[in-house]
């Protein structure tokens, strides 16, 4: 769940994922207004992501794809 305190971070983010919430949640509404992809209510799946992971969000399909590559 997000609150107004997250707004500066949501402005900087390319997309948002939350463990709880639905289409009328704060995150979903703010992202719609900011025209950013958002996937809400992913539950414990969010624990699979770590800082520095590269992911691709397909918010239309509700897909989170963890990208596997190394920088050389």
Structure in words:
Strands 1-2 form a two-stranded parallel ribbon. A two-stranded antiparallel ribbon has the order 3-4. It is globular. Helix content is 21%, strand content 17%. The chain has helices at residues 7-12, 26-34; strands at residues 16-17, 38-39, 55-58, 63-66. The chain has 72 residues and is α+β, with helices and mostly antiparallel strands. It has one domain (4-66): Phosphohistidine domain (Glucose Oxidase, domain 1), CATH 3.50.30.
Counting structural domains, the number is 1
Secondary-structure-based class equals alpha+beta
Beta-strand content estimate: 15-25%
What is the succession of H and E elements?
Answer: HEHEEE
Helix content: 10-25%
Number of continuous helical runs: 2
**What is the number of beta strands?**
4
Question: From the 3D coordinates, which CATH architecture would you assign?
Answer: 3-Layer(bba) Sandwich
| Rg over C-alpha atoms, rounded to the nearest angstrom | 12 Å
Mean pLDDT: 92
Which strand order does the major sheet show? 1-2
The major β-sheet equals: 2 strands, parallel
């Amino acid at each position: 769940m997000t609150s107004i305190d997250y707004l500066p971070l949501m402005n900087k983010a390319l997309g948002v994922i939350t463990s709880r919430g639905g289409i009328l949640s704060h995150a979903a509404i703010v992202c719609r207004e900011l025209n950013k992809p958002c996937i809400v209510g992913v539950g414990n799946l969010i624990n699979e992501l770590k800082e520095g992971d590269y992911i691709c969000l397909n918010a239309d399909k509700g897909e989170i794809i963890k990208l596997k590559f190394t920088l050389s």
